[in-house]
Amino acid sequence: MRNHVQVAVIGGGVVGASVLYHLTKAGWKDVLLIERAELTSGSTWHAAGGMHTVNGDPNVAKLQQYTINLYKEIEQISGQSCGVHITGGIMLAGTPERLDWLKMAKARGRYLGMDLELISVAEAKKLFPLMEEKHFVGAMYDPIEGHVDPYGVTHAYAKSAQVGGAEIVRQTRVVDTKQRPDGSWDVITDKGNVHAEHVVNAGGLWAREVGRMVGIELPILAMEHQYLITDDLPEFKGQQEQLHCIDFEGEIYMRQERGGMLMGTYERAGVPWSPHTTPWDFGQDLLPNDLERIAPSLEVGFQHFPRLESAGIKKIVNGPFTFAPDGNPLIGPVRGLKNYWVACGVMAGFSQGGGVGLALSQWMVNGDPGADIWGMDVARYGDWATLAYTNAKVRENYSRRFRIRFPNEELPAGRPLRTTPIYEKLAAENAVFGDYCGLEHALWFAPKGTEPREEVTFRRSNAHAHVAAECRAVRDSVGLLEISNYGKFEVTGPRAAEWLGQVMANRVPAIGRMVLSPMLNDAGRLIGDFTIARLSEERFFVVGTYAAEVFYRRWFERTLPPAGVTVRPCAMEYTGLSVAGPQARELLQPLVADDLSTKAFPFMSFRKIDVGMVPALVGRVSFTGDIGYEMWVTSDYQRALYDLLVKAGARFGLRHLGGRALNALRLEKSFGTWAREYRPIYGPYEAGLGRFVDLKKPEFAGRAAAEAEKASGGVRRLITLDVDARDADAIGDEPIYHAGKVVGWVTSGGYGHTVGKSLAMGYVSKDVADATGDFGVELMGEVRGAVRLAEPAFDPAGTRMRA
Ligand SMILES: Cc1cc2nc3c(=O)[nH]c(=O)nc-3n(C[C@H](O)[C@H](O)[C@H](O)COP(=O)(O)OP(=O)(O)OC[C@H]3O[C@@H](n4cnc5c(N)ncnc54)[C@H](O)[C@@H]3O)c2cc1C
Asked: Which of 641, 571, 642, 588 is nearest to 425 (CA)?
């Protein structure tokens, strides 16, 4: 074993092997993989090896496509077969809702270049004769599905990496990792130590234990997973290999394995494995079978595929593999630990392993993953994702793996966990709550005396009319909204202004003022959008997206000078309330001594103001696009502030509004949001944020790239469409057409209640971005006509919010 390397990868499962290969491919040759036993000794060896391109997150879907296409390459380099069988696959819908889901998946596939085809039940039967037609209403065919040999794939990655210069040591366990003052690592093994500049934790089933060596608790949990292989079916003899099949209603996946069928299920009563600690002596072991647990799925399966009932069971496999709470991988650099990377929680190693290795290696070598991997970034979880929270959410996610997640569906596990002081008060107003990073927040308010519950659907729900009334209140009088679920930072110190000027693209505001500012990476792509408020020469209050708090902090830490600036995250220390609407000022003015007139406290002002007895930080701004005030208070004051505003608002008919109404109101203004319109694949000019990029500043992160983007106009443009929708509005990820061709995708959509329009924001190629008509958006399998709005649907001049 070398005693000094550039990178030590811990773990020789399919993921660690892929990372190793991709590092050598990206040019880092001095890399070492350390494996406790033999390669594949975690969850990899007993995997069913299935792979598919379809994924709910289009960015993850792209990496899955990449993975499947990679197998030829590593077979060629290594001479090791991956045992690739591309059989094609069908997904069977047993309900109209599932058929809608398939239509939406097919639509998404259009701009991902996927060749998905909706087929009838009769066509499906021809392709997959085992099915009983009467249980299904439709199907989708994907030509690029199949399975691989897990051993072959892992060894093909490993050998290809060795060809590229990597070293692999087996039968060597990493027992500790210790950081040196310069940020490099001593990797301590039972066979001696290695000094590594970077460490990658690809410990799979043991990733938690490897993480604990450096004091982190990764939010992953292993679940037991069973599949069975039937005896050989004589009718398969001499036939072409059967397709892969997913039966959503039976919650079963299937493929041919030699002469029989392999059938696996994500059962509802899923069981975690080793919830606290993974034993080190677990190796190429299987867990005891528990057919009873999967009996309900098998029962449905045998009805849907009757031939299998009489086939006889040759073998049952029960093995553990890991999941993050949302089922997507955890990859990237860990905040606060220099040169420490993770690639774990990969639940579909044979569809995703290649993409994970590619993204991580790009990130390590170039400082950027080179793709939009927000959905897989380890930074999407904060301290709130404890072991017990992870346990609740992973079990829920596992049991729902083949169930539809409707766009308006809030899942119940692990809730309520985090609440703000006014939670009960909002509940008393009949709030329907949603969960955001474990924090409860009001989505909308059901009429008193009714059950606060939203029916889940792809179409407009029972919330529609009530959300409309909330929106109307903001436009006509005044609404009250809790705004606690934002990320907040206090930035202080003699170099605070200088640092903000460097890290943010916009100018630093004057005392008492706010600015909106994108944050760009070195490639000039959007990695954040913030409101920066200045309280004094050396004190700033910065508000951004809460879900990205760890992501932001990781970036901030990279850019902070050694002294002179302190960035203090204070998301839950400050809770917030906002009043918005033409009567917001009349409501608030009697409660404060300060003059709130536009002259004295104009749009984008920010100041410490006492509201009644409550000391608050007050900003003259509102995401609704109406005149409004955002008030931030330490949480001990939130109830008092709420009571005061509700009482003062009574004479104006103050109405509570929730996140759904806010979303509708911001769409009316074409205001984008983080993770939808603003993501690291877009530039600020493409996103319409050019006016918040201050190119007069001589220097700031991403400046050169931003300037180049301004000159070239980028490649795409964010537009807003007025869609001729029926009963379903755009949600996000639908294809956008122009003149019959797919030219882009929707980032978010909804109904603009006060403008009476179904609105969709999305990116299109810049060459069609100025066209007006001839657009279309595919909703529920139907291309609906759409017109580009040249300006926001509501108050295009912005006079209302400035009034
Ligand atoms: C029954 C079953 C069926 C499955 N079917 C499929 C499927 O059809 N398709 C699909 O894509 N996926 C499937 N999977 C999931 C798939 O197996 C995982 O996605 C994949 O194995 C994850 O690989 P990994 O490298 O992250 O983890 P692991 O395979 O667990 O590898 C981790 C490796 O790290 C080593 N290690 C850990 N700690 C240390 C240490 N301290 N020092 C040295 N070495 C260490 C371990 O020995 C192990 O070899 C299935 C899983 C199971 C259990």
From this structure: 642
| Enclosing H/E stretch for 98 | helix 96-111
Q: Distance between alpha carbon 460 and the CA centroid of its chain, in Å?
A: 23
**Whole-angstrom distance, CA of residue 150 vs CA of residue 47:** 7
Mean residue pLDDT of the chain comes to 96
**Structure confidence by residue, pLDDT tens digits, 533-543:** 999 999 999 99
Q: Which atom of ligand 1 is nearest to the CA of 43?
A: 29
Pairing, β 244-247 against β 479-482: unpaired
The letter for the amino acid at 336 is G
pLDDT (tens digit per residue) in 589-604: 999 999 999 999 999 9
Does ligand 1 come within 6 angstroms of the Cβ of 738?
A: no
Angle (CA) 160-163-168 rounded to 5° is 80
696 and 674 in contact (C-beta within 8 Å)? no
347 closest CA partner among 253, 222, 255, 186:
222
**One-letter amino acid of 610:** D
Report the DSSP pairing between strands 89-93 and 138-142.
antiparallel
Ligand 1 centroid from CA 279, angstroms: 15
pLDDT tens digits, residue range 775-800?
A: 999 999 999 999 999 999 999 999 99
Query: To the nearest 5 percent, what fractions of the chain are helix, strand and coil?
Result: 30, 30, 40
Quote the ligand 1 centre to 575 CA distance (angstroms).
41
Q: Distance (Å, rounded) from C-alpha 426 to C-alpha 487?
A: 21
CA atoms within 13 A on the CB side of 800: 24
CB of residue 709 inside a 6 A radius of ligand 1: no
Rounded-to-integer distance, Cα 249 and Cα 134, Å: 13
pLDDT band at 20 (very low <50, low <70, confident <90, very high): very high
- Amino acid making up residue 348: A
Beta carbon of 747 within 6 Å of any ligand 1 atom: no
Instruction: Tell me: pLDDT of 59 over 90.
Output: no
More reliable by pLDDT, 708 or 772 = 708
Eight-state DSSP code of residue 723: E
Whether 185 contacts 192, CB under 8 Å: no
Q: What is the pTM of this model?
A: 0.96
Cβ partners under 8 Å of residue 263, min gap 6: 227, 228, 229, 230, 252, 253, 254, 298, 301, 308
